[in-house]
Amino acid sequence: MPIYQAPLEDYNFIIDDVLDTYTCFKDIPQFSDVNRELMESILSEAGKFAEQEIQPLNQLGDQQGCRVENGEVIAPPCFKEPMKKYIDAGWTQLSESPEYGGQGLPYLLNGAICEMNLSACTAFSLYGIRDGSIAAIEKNASQEIKDKYLPKLVEGIWGGPMCMTEPQGGSDLGLIKTKAEPQADGSYSVTGTKMFITGGDSDLIENSNSIMLVLARIPGAPDGIKGISLFIVPKFLVNDDGSLGERNHTSVGSIEHKMGLNGSATCVMNYDGAKGFLISKENKGMAAMFAMVNRSRYLIGQQGTAAASVAYQNAAQYALDRIQFRSLTGPKNPDLPADSIIVHPDVRRLLLTQRSFVEGSRAFNLYVAKLFDELDYSQDEDRKTRCQSLLDLLTPILKGFNTEMGWESVNHGLQVFGGHGYIRENGMEQFVRDSRAAAIYEGTTGIQAMDLLARKVLATQGEMLKIFTSEINSFCTENKDHCVVGKMANELQAATARWLELTMEIGMSAMKNPDNLGAASVDYLMYSGYVTLGYFWVRMAQAAADKEKQTPFTQAKLQTAQFYFDRILPRTATLEKTIQAGSASIMEMNAEAFVL
After folding, report:
1. How high is the pLDDT of residue 489?
2. Backbone dihedral angles phi then psi of residue 269, each to the nearest 5 degrees
3. pLDDT tens, position by position, 578-593
4. Each residue of 198-221: b (16+ CB within 10 Å) or e?
5. Is 256 exposed, middle or buried (CB count within 10 Å of its CB: 0-12, 13-18, 19+)?
6. For the chain, which residues make up each domain, given as ranges?
7. Is the pTM value of this prediction over 0.85?
8. Which one, of 216, 212, 236, 233, lies nearest residue 225 by Cα?
9. Contact at 8 Å (CB) between 108 and 28?
10. How many alpha carbons lie under 13 Å from residue 570 in its C-beta half-sphere?
11. Backbone angles phi, psi at 395, to 5 degrees
């Protein structure tokens, strides 16, 4: 039976010692009362809920799966009672605006809790995520729409799926065909089909309403993404008093039979003249959508961390318990017929690769969550502008890098188990199946890479990148003579300088041949991710080294940081070569030759 333990000590260390969150929040009136005691108590209770209520659902929900009956989704029955407890306890309301029933606490707190829930049972947790939809409505909709829909979305009793993808277009939203025809009452008649809709429908909450955010075209709109508008299309129309009215013309065509995440309903949604309501302005749907896309991509990036975290915990425990062969340096457990496999260097390599990614990306994730808080609530306009630039740059790195490294790390966990990892009851094969989708949805790694390199870096002449690299360089310069982390800081500073140089090289190469941009993009994203995690590992190592009292926790931080710099950051040397290789060997082969 798989295990899960909430990493509370790590959260508290990152939030307080690494990110200096409480000092930062003193300048934000919204969070003036937020302190360590409050945050730790909430995280502790959330950890208990994840361990005791959510984690037991993981294997059972996978076995029960979802089904469609009479056009309605039936979610795993084991999810119902825990979802009611989750909503009744107010967990969906933590970071949302008090104006709509939220508690107004930092999104940073929500980010930590979300990772715990996703580690405990990803499929269950996906039903409870509405952050992106709430953000899109709150930042773009009329006050009437906000008042009608946000309170129950925030309360958690209504779902908020995002409905963008269509069968013929996939991630190319410029190809969508769903129509939205204006009606005399100011609404729109929406007709079309969407697919890959996570949580498009479910029966987890009685009298639940699915408040779908749907991208569609108004007749006469320009072609491509410039002609897309965003609409609310509720499953049930909502009366002026907030009660549910008649059933709208929406239906579930089917649910996808997937490789993993069997407990999460991924729906084909049909709209047959469904009543919809415009958010923002006509043909401005893409701009409105980005309010939800950044949050959604952040949460999917967290999925990579969450899957790797629970896989690591189980692999580490197994490595301590499983005995096979003797240590190369002599028996470590002479009273047993063999030593625990954790004595073997290659097993430790697998575990430390997992651990260095999990803890490094967790610090990265919380840093980005704190940026969301500063962007929304800081009263310093320069600070808000800087936060927006950092979020624009770091979101594709976080989503793309975390999900790729999460997949690698989960597979390492299965490898530690050996043949037992391939057996269903041990849980590791489910972690592998469930983690694979994260690198695909909300934009594949290739899409994140092109967004990062073309739109966020080169299109701004590197200005966004320089904001972040300047922060890294300042930290490295301040700590270049640190007795513990000075060498790491100098190595990171060199890798950061090379990051900027490679950016210029790619830009120059792409001017000669645009295919060189696409050929380099994913390697560039991964290079960016390794340097970014290096930054957070140096910060964590410095915070651990500077503690007055060293503990097993701080010693493990320092040792894992050293492993990262010895074994993981050097991957950038290979990526530098592949980035510089250009597109010739990729593009020369005739398309027909790919078919054997």
Report:
1. 98
2. -110, 130
3. 999 999 999 999 999 9
4. bbbbbbbbeebbbbbbbbbbbeeb
5. middle
6. 8-137, 159-285, 456-586
7. yes
8. 216
9. no
10. 6
11. -60, -50
The rounded distance, in Å, linking the Cα atoms of 470 and 96 is 32
Number of residues assigned to the chain = 596
- Amino acid letter, residue 410: V
**What residues are labeled active site?**
442
DSSP state of 159: B
Which of these, 108, 147, 136, 282, lies nearest to 212 by C-alpha position?
136
pLDDT, one tens digit per residue, over 314-329 is: 999 999 999 999 989 9
Q: Are the beta carbons of 231 and 191 closer than 8 angstroms?
A: no
Residue 285 near residue 229, CB atoms below 8 Å: yes
Task: Write down the pLDDT at residue 442.
Answer: 87
Cα–Cα distances (Å) from 451 to 399, 558, 589, in that order, read 11, 34, 26
Residues of the chain with pLDDT under 70: 207, 291
Q: Is the CB of residue 424 less than 8 Å from the CB of residue 371?
A: no
**DSSP-derived secondary structure for 205-218:** STT--BEEEEEEB-
Q: Which amino acid is at 448?
A: Q
Three-state DSSP class for residue 479: coil
CA angle 414, 420, 426 (to 5 degrees): 80
Q: How many CB atoms lie within 10 A of CB 340?
A: 18
The topology (CATH level 3) of 8-137 is Butyryl-Coa Dehydrogenase, subunit A; domain 1 (1.10.540)
- What's at 296, amino acid-wise? S
Amino acid at 227: G
For residues 87 and 155, is the Cβ–Cβ distance under 8 A? yes
Tokens standing for 425?
Answer: 């009851």
**Contact indicator for 179, 188 with CB cutoff of 8 Å:** no
β-strand pairing of 211-216 with 229-234: antiparallel
Alpha carbon of 343 to those of 339, 413, 561, 567: distances in Å?
7, 16, 20, 18
265 in Cβ contact with 109 (< 8 Å)? no
As a CATH number, domain 159-285 is 2.40.110.20
